[in-house]
Known about the structure:
The strands form four sheets. The chain has a four-stranded antiparallel sheet, with no helix packed on it. The protein is 24% helix and 28% strand. The chain has seven helices and twelve strands. The protein is an alpha+beta fold. Among the domains are: 1-61 and 89-96, no CATH class; 159-207, no CATH class.
Amino acid sequence: MRPDMQHLLVERGHAGTGYTRHQPKGWSARCRFRTEDDDQRESFITPWRRPQFSENLAPLRRYLAAQVGRPWAKVYSEIRSHVDADSAVQYHILQHLYDGLAVKVLREADGALWYHRARGGLRPLRGSHMQQYVCPDTGLIRLVKRRHRAPTVPVSRDSLPADGPDHEFLDLAGQWYEVWWGMVNQHGTLMRTIVRKRQLGHKELRTLGLRY
């Protein structure tokens, strides 16, 4: 785990659009490795040079994703070796550590996995927002398997009924339309023909099962 992880998670850079641009090469990287004494002296830094803070959890997610297959006990030991729970900034890592990682996991007799939520209660692991979990049998970090829906295979057809005898969905030259039929007098002869049509959109096609 990177020793500057606590700064990567909450530090968004120094204020001032031109300040960092005029610093020597490597200045931004060196600023990440501040000591606790430096953090305590931040109140004396001029406002336009202070770091700004925001939520940036992508580095933590990438770190946890890279630990899949490793024992959770070793991973947690590495994290605690770099994170001081007494430091407000570093404790931020522990607060978000379990956002996508289920640690307390139970396996039912049928093989289904359940995990303890932070605020109590059990919830099925599959279908939850968790990305990884600690296997209750091996103690290794595993990925949560997602359910993959089988693609809908469109049925070969050129028309579908709508809400009336003169109203239907029709395939015209490879494009689907909502059409209305009517009787038209052509040269003294009444003929049934399309009097109105409207091309269907992507959402309507999916609803009707005409697209994947």
